[in-house]
Amino acid sequence: MNYDLGDLSNPAKLTDPIDVSGWNTGELIEIYKKMRLIRNVEDEIARLINSGEVKCPSHLCVGQEAIAVGVSYHLRNTDRVFGTHRSHSHYLALGGEPKSLFAEVLGRRDGCSKGMGGSMHLFGGKHGFLGSVPIVGGTVPIAVGAGLAAKKDGHGDVGVSYFGDGACEEGVVHEAFNLAAIYEIPVLFVCENNLFASHMDIHLRQPSDRMSRFAEANRINVQTVDGNDVLAVAKATETLLEKSRKGNGPGFLEVVTYRWKGHVGAADDVDVGVLRKEKDIIAWKKRDPIQRLRQGLVNQRKMDDSEFNAMDREISKDLMRAINEAKKSPYPEQNDLLDYVYA
Ligand SMILES: Cc1ncc(C[n+]2csc(CCOP(=O)(O)OP(=O)(O)O)c2C)c(N)n1
Ligand SMILES: [Mg+2]
To answer: Is 13 contained in some domain?
Structure first.
């Protein structure tokens, strides 16, 4: 068993504030607010699960917010992005409305999938989010097809596929890598390596913890970065997209991270079967992507806590409004169900 990721998967490392040099303060604040929005939306969804109002299975990404925000920083709404069972961040980072997400998980008509999909079937077409699907690995070949269509359209758009380390254990994912490489398809593979697939640690499942080895086997350009450093994620995305947008094939971004909550639901860490160690979760919380950016801004741009607290309060206020509006939306009619079934 090899711990090939080194410091990237060692939570005692990489806990320093993020180096923000070279970035404009206004841009950094927008990036901070986006991550904070995602965290707060999920905290609210956790509350709605606990109160019994959200009944659909919901996979929260608390602790992993930097990935979608860093990747989306370089995407445009004509790109074709596909998510997973854990896609609240993918949807929100592209500009999906919190109200439509709340309405969706509450099963209401105003939801982004008309209240019929729940947390695992999100859609945000106008922002380029073409869908999330619970079948692990299921959207990876679809994103490759979307990338091929983008290549034929010839406007420099790309397919984007988010997936986890667990998805790398599905055969179809490797077929997708091969096809993208051989046809030089502009698709960005984003492997959110959180070192777990439901209850199971990567080291119990694979001979190496480094997923980018599968891309290298297909001669796909690789970037492997700290997934809790939003600026590193953005920079690596930019590097990979530069080639893909010119039609020079796929890129593979491996972003190493950790989820703070259990595999599914609101509980802090109740996983199916094996419990993760509490000391690991405590250690990983020191690599909090939001706190690290905030501290970088405090240290290097002389911002203070009161400025951040004001932003956080504003976001919370907007979210309360969004939840109240979502709750006013009716449930779908039983008769509506078949209108959205493809047959
Ligand atoms: C084809 C398939 N097999 C199994 C499952 C059950 N399942 C749901 S999520 C999950 C783990 C996925 O792990 P990973 O891809 O690393 O994503 P993460 O949950 O860590 O974000 C499994 C096995 C499924 N949904 N689809
Ligand atoms: Mg995983």
So the answer is: no
- Confirm whether 337 is domain-assigned: no
Q: What is the atom index within ligand 1 of the atom nearest the CA of 86? A: 21
Please report whether residue 61 resides in a domain. Answer: yes
Residues 297-333: tens digit of each pLDDT? 999 999 999 999 999 999 999 999 999 999 999 999 9
Ligand 1: residue of 85, 194, 259 to mutate (most ligand atoms within 8 A of CB) is 85
* Ligand 1 centroid – CA 17 distance (Å): 32
Residue 173 maps to a domain: yes
Task: Give the chain's domain count.
Answer: 1
Is residue 102 a contact partner of residue 329, using CB atoms and an 8 Å limit? Answer: no
In 3-state terms the chain splits into helix, strand, coil percentages (rounded to 5) of: 50, 10, 40
91 or 1, greater pLDDT: 91
The CATH number covering residue 44 comes to 3.40.50.970
Of ligand 1's atoms, which has the minimum distance to the CA of residue 136?
A: 26
Residue 183 has pLDDT above 70, yes or no: yes
| For the CA of 59, the nearest atom of ligand 1 | 19
CA–centroid distance, 84 to ligand 1, in Å, is 9
pLDDT at 271 over 80: no
SS3 28: helix
Contact, 222 vs 190, CB < 8 A? no
Whole-structure pTM value: 0.98
